[in-house]
Amino acid sequence: MKISCLRTDLVSAISNVSRAVSSKASIPALEGVLIKAYDNNLNISGYNLEIGITTDVEATVRQEGEIVLSARLFLEIIRKLPEEIVTMETDDRMVTYITCGQVDYQIVGMPSVEYPDLPTFQQTDGITVNAGILKDMIRRTVYAVSDNTAKPIYTGSLYEIADGMLHIVAIDGFRMAIRSENVDSESKTTFVVPGKTQLEVLKLLTEDDHMVDIIVGQRHITFKIDSYSVISRLIEGTFLDYRATVPSTAKTELVINTRKMIDSVERMSLLNSERVQSPVRCKFKENEIRLSCASAVGRANDVISVPIIGESVEIGFNNRYMLEALKNTDTDEVKMVLNGPVSPIVIKPVKGDSFLCIVVPVRLSNEN
């Protein structure tokens, strides 16, 4: 293999692809990136047996070939090179010569046959989504993905496509986040994408008008984002009927300024830490919300004046779960719906149904 290309293109490609590389693997090749040079194109891949990221870099290919190089070392070398044009050449002993200006390196690689094949699969369905919309949908739901591997299905988000709508749903047993957008698709399908995969996709997505192709197979999925492809397994299993968990009644309703509610909960949160966790107590009564938090380090109280429709209610919640739900709405005001002290707290837009968040309450002990 003998190629030359721009250093900035190479740094960007290796930085992104390296996120799918194993830091410690039983197969040494998985700690490297696979480099293939063909037809004036440099294809770079990283794969950890769960997620694979590949991309193409424009290059002048004088001699075609393939090699696996240590991802960490290769990236550090390319980052430190002094000039823009990088030349790479590999000999029969798997030694790669990297030259840039007056700087040259010789590093030992591995044959490409030692690198596991990335998954290939037959497409069963697919959808094309605006990159900015997909980024917003993932960002505002992935926080609610579970990290409990005892129930693997909830370590991913449900993607549901039906009636020209895409819904992304994340549940971890303590809260739920739903994001919905119109899409140009006649498909009707559901699949569960691992949270880790979505975080990698999120890093590659931009907020522009580029389109992202989502290619779905029976057990795998590919996100095609500009010159990158993110390949991942899907999570198999039965996802909760999330619609059945949304309360159909509304005993107490209010519309509140999102920032005001965030600020107040954050003030209560000052008494909590990793070691000290106490719920925030909320009393919705007579057109005001009375918030309080009592922990081993002290007590805090706050009052927000807001019109309340319906019954008075006292409810407790985990401050972090409530803050994450509120911060991942995108409206100045939200509607909060309550159905008593032990029913989930529903947060949704004042108009429309673009999002819905649920926070499961915490049972409160009697105050002294």
The CATH level-2 architecture of the largest domain is identified as: Roll
- State the distance separating the first and last CA atoms: 76 Å
Whole-number mean pLDDT = 95
Name of the CATH superfamily of the largest domain:
DNA Polymerase III, subunit A, domain 2
Q: Structural class of the helices, strands and pairings?
A: alpha+beta
Strand proportion, as a percent range, falls in 35-45%
Largest sheet: 9 strands, antiparallel
Widest beta sheet: strand line-up:
14-11-12-13-26-25-24-18-22
Radius of gyration: 25 Å
Unreliably modeled segments: none
Domain tally: 3
What report would you give on this structure?
- By secondary structure, this protein is of the alpha+beta class.
- It has helices at 7-17, 71-80, 131-139, 195-204, 242-245, 258-269, 319-327; strands at 2-6, 32-38, 41-47, 51-58, 60-63, 65-70, 85-90, 95-100, 103-108, 125-130, 156-162, 165-171, 175-182, 189-194, 211-216, 220-225, 228-233, 252-257, 280-285, 288-295, 298-305, 308-310, 313-317, 333-338, 345-349, 355-359.
- The strands form 4 sheets. A 9-stranded antiparallel β-sheet has the order 14-11-12-13-26-25-24-18-22. Strands 6-2-3-4-17-16-15-10 form an 8-stranded antiparallel β-sheet.
- A hairpin with a 2-residue loop joins strand 19 (280-285) and strand 20 (288-295).
- It is elongated, with a radius of gyration of 25 Å.
- It starts with a strand and ends in a 9-residue tail after the last strand.
